[in-house]
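Subject: for your reference before the review

Hello V.,

The reviewers asked for a structural picture of the protein, and I figured it would be easier to keep everything in one thread rather than splitting it across files. Below is the amino acid sequence we used in the manuscript, unchanged from the supplementary table.
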Amino acid sequence: MVEWRITNSVFTVAFNIVLPLSKIAEELQNLRDISIDYNPSRFSGLILYTNFTKENKKIKIIIFSSGLMNITGLKNIEKLISIIEKIREIFKRIGIDLPEAYELKVTNIVISGKFDYDNIDLDKISSDFDNRNSRFPGIPIPYYISEDYKVTFNIFRNGRFVCTGIKSDINNIEQTINNIVNSFQEKVIKKYAKQ
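And here is what came back from the structure prediction:
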């Protein structure tokens, strides 16, 4: 079974409420445990940083006036709901009550891991996938899950990989990832493993 771990993720939370970003930025600047970046002439969203979890201090929230929020940098998916609750608390401190109901979507998950094989023939896989111009020590290989959904595996000679573009139903993330990596190993990697 392929070993893997989440190294980054992006989730979109839709609160379906209009948010006055200028007012929010002004209020958040007064909170000492919050750091923000807001320059509407450069980017339309407000970026919020705080220590959402002890393990992962690089989480950032990108907030848009439409009520959409992108949560990026999360490595432990189990913390997602508590982060959303912390966002609610922060907004409550500045006088904004976010709705109880919201839509949650997995936008992108990035994983790194190790296939069951230690010696991948990168020259052959590169040739077969017409990827000879890669200057990266690994080879990027697109893997189509369906006609309109693909992920990209960056494969290294030692059997390690990084996979980007994973999307899933929020309740089936682990199962989806297992299905993708094990299917890719069986259908692609197995053919290029050196004995």
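For the response letter, the relevant points are probably these. Residues 173-192 form the longest helix (20 residues). The chain has a mean pLDDT of 90.

Happy to draft the paragraph if you're swamped.

O.
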